[in-house]
From TrEMBL:
InterPro entries: ClpP/crotonase-like_dom_sf, Enoyl-CoA_hydra/iso
Subunit record text: Homotrimer.
Protein name: Enoyl-CoA delta isomerase 1, mitochondrial
Ranges in coiled-coil conformation: none
Keywords associated with the record: Acetylation, Fatty acid metabolism, Isomerase, Lipid metabolism, Mitochondrion, Transit peptide
CDD domains found in the cross-reference section: crotonase-like (cd06558)
Length: 281
């Protein structure tokens, strides 16, 4: 702990906060003293799956960064193979009602916090970004990805209906016909394919380069008035966030009904068994 803090200071970075779970720091926030840009690192082994605590940690970290007058947020991962594997599927399997409600509300709030952040946001995608991993990257304003990884929302492949706000995440970066085809096919894109359709903005050859490209993007707003920028962004994005801003309870109800249905639970069982069996072969 002390050694890593010393290293952060040597790099001219301040450690703003750590969101702790019982056994590890779920998120790490470092602010570059020179640029004022905060790097928010997802740090939930093994694959940054988003359970209730992880999404709460992400939301709290983003709010803390906004409150500390940082100039922008770069979202990345401490795992050099996986940016995020999306929702923690164990949260959806035979869920206890109270926890499921808290979990889904946290997903809604985490997404709104990122999508409507007052600050410029960028994702340094240094590993696979699947399902909600892709949704988080798409909620940022800019995406830089390393080669050799995959990104996409493959929900329909394993029997999940894609909720409207997740559709909207895609719609804010991709043209409608591309979104329709990608979601209906459950398409997972390689880095090259993602660049071709503009799901990502740039490719970088290392995490450092990705962080630097994200920082340059955030720096491009240096001349913009932060309040005018934030309010304009909110106006531009409000339409896609409307369902969750106006009717979160209705979206929650619809999702809970679907998640607890035998149809969903059966396909989840089969999918989880397939995922686990991969490691037993
Ligand atoms: C209108 C009605 C609305 C209804 C709405 C309801 C439906 C909502 C659905 C919305 C859509 C999507 C939401 C999601 O995000 S679902 C999550 C989907 N994610 C995945 O399918 C990712 C699966 N994981 C992988 O493909 C790979 O793990 C990886 C990310 C490519 C990494 O590969 P790896 O070889 O490095 O690691 P691996 O050995 O596979 O995994 C390590 C252990 O982690 C477990 N694990 C992986 N991903 C998850 C996950 N998402 N949740 C829980 N657990 C996960 C994996 O099983 C390994 O465990 P173990 O070591 O074998 O025990």
């Amino acid at each position: 702990m002390l050694r890593s803090q010393t290293k952060l200071f040597a790099l001219g970075k301040r450690q703003l906060c750590r969101s702790m779970s019982k056994s590890c720091d779920l998120t790490l926030v470092e602010v570059d003293d020179k640029t004022g840009i905060a790097t928010l690192t997802m740090n939930k082994p093994p694959v940054n799956s988003c359970n209730l605590e992880m999404m709460r940690a992400l939301k709290d970290s983003m709010k803390q960064i906004e409150g500390n007058k940082s100039r922008g947020i770069i979202l990345t991962s401490s795992n050099n193979k996986v940016f995020s594997s999306g929702l923690d599927l164990n949260e959806l399997r035979n869920p206890e009602q109270e926890r499921l409600v808290a979990f889904w509300k946290e997903l809604q709030e985490m997404w709104l916090t990122l999508y409507l952040s007052n600050l410029p946001t960028a994702a340094a995608i240094n590993g696979h970004a699947l399902a909600v991993g892709c949704v988080m990257a798409s909620a940022c304003e800019y995406r830089v990805m390393l080669p050799g990884f995959t990104i996409g929302i493959h929900a329909t492949k394993f029997g999940y209906v894609v909720p409207p706000f997740i559709v909207n995440s895609y719609l804010s970066v991709l043209p409608r016909p591309v979104v329709e085809r990608a979601l209906l096919q459950g398409k997972i894109f390689s880095t090259d394919e993602a660049q071709q359709i503009n799901l990502i903005d740039e490719v970088a050859n290392s995490k450092e380069e990705a962080l630097s490209k994200c920082a340059s993007f955030i720096g491009s707003f240096a001349e913009a008035n932060p309040v005018a920028r934030a309010l304009t962004k909110r106006q531009l994005r409000a339409e896609f966030a409307r369902t969750l801003l106006d009717e979160p309870e209705a979206e929650l109800k619809e999702s809970l009904e679907y998640i607890t249905s035998p149809l969903f639970q059966d396909s989840l069982d089969a999918y989880l068994a397939k995922l686990k069996s991969k490691n037993k072969k």
